[in-house]
Amino acid sequence: MGPSLFDDTMEISFWGTRGSISTPGRTTEKYGGNTPCVSVRSANTFIILDAGTGIRNFGHELVQKYRNNFNEASLNLFLSHTHWDHIQGLPFFDPLYIPGVHLSVYGSPGKRGLLEQILRGQMDMDYFPVQMSALSAELIIREMDKELIEIIPFRIDWQEQIYHPGGSVRFGINLGKKRLVYATDVELNKCFVENPTPEQKGHQRAYMKFIEGADMLIADGQYTAEEYVKTKNYGHTTIPLLADIAYRCRVKQLAVFHHNPPHTDNNIDELWQDYHARFMTADPPMNVFWAREGQAIPL
Ligand SMILES: [Zn+2]
Ligand SMILES: [Zn+2]
User: Fold this and answer.
1) How remote is the CA of residue 116 from the centroid of ligand 2, in Å?
2) Which of 233, 297, 291, 294 shows the shortest CA–CA distance to 18?
3) Number of domains observed in the structure of the chain
4) Domain that holds residue 239
5) For a tag site, which of 7, 52, 53, 179 has the least CB within 10 Å?
6) What is the distance in A from the centroid of ligand 2 to the CA of 164?
């Protein structure tokens, strides 16, 4: 029998798409208020991108699916960085309270503190009632050293992003010929400037090569150009710049991510209408959408 048509399909689920801080409430219920968490699944292997407050609902779904027997599940968490909005959901990830669960955590080797100490610190008594040592699951925390990480059937590559306070990492998740790029929390506006220095030019090239031809790019598009006047140096990219670069690099689908907390569903719908129309009629077209909490997309 030949390989199944679906062997190379990854299922991408958005559990949290909001940037900076969670924004519950009626005006954000469509695109969601939880902070970043995206899961990528092939059979029973999960690549989890960030552990913002969205990871809590993902944990509920995993517990429903596997009950108390996680033997078949491979859980691998990749952290772009350790700002609150990307780690705050971890202590509320239910599988961590189930004996026999193993969670591998991957993060940048370039932080000022050790990744394990930072994650442990978040569960210090001053901040949280349950200490990390009391978790039933086994956490295997690794600072990435190799350029390519193989978690069968996935291959994951990564790069430091530089233009974010404290740094952040982008990830490429490859399955068969498909490539998904997750590149949040980066201020591309500081690198894609008029008259770039040779260093900025190098970083431009590295970014463009990384996203070139991606089947999907999930990327920081927090601000409109008008907002950016006041939010320069906060570490996030403007939507028009992101869309331009993605289009130039022949990205097939662009998921705008890390939504600005003040953006309501109406604001985002308006942005979507404008950008979607513009890029769907381009030749070749690019599908631009704003990632929505609860959305699941096969790739
Ligand atoms: Zn963030
Ligand atoms: Zn950040």
Assistant:
1) 18
2) 291
3) 1
4) 11-298
5) 7
6) 7
Q: 207 in a domain, yes or no?
A: yes
Nearest to 185 by CA among 199, 204, 166, 209: 166
Amino acid (one-letter) located at 210: F
Share of the chain above pLDDT 70, in %: 97
Q: What is the reported pTM? A: 0.96
Is 203 inside any structural domain? Answer: yes
What pLDDT shows up at residue 3? Answer: 47
Per cent of the chain over pLDDT 90 is: 91
Taking only the tens place, the pLDDT of each residue in 211-253 is 999 999 999 999 999 999 999 999 999 999 999 999 999 999 9
Q: Which residues surround ligand 1, an ion (CB under 5 A)?
A: 19, 85, 185
CA of 83 to the centre of ligand 1 (A): 6
Q: pLDDT at residue 128 above 50? A: yes
Q: Which ligand does the CA of 186 lie closest to?
A: 2
CATH assignment at residue 67: 3.60.15.10
**Does any domain span residue 6?**
no
Residue 1: is its pLDDT beyond 60? no
**What is the largest distance, in Å, between two alpha-carbon atoms of the chain?**
59
Question: Is residue 179 a part of any domain in this protein?
Answer: yes
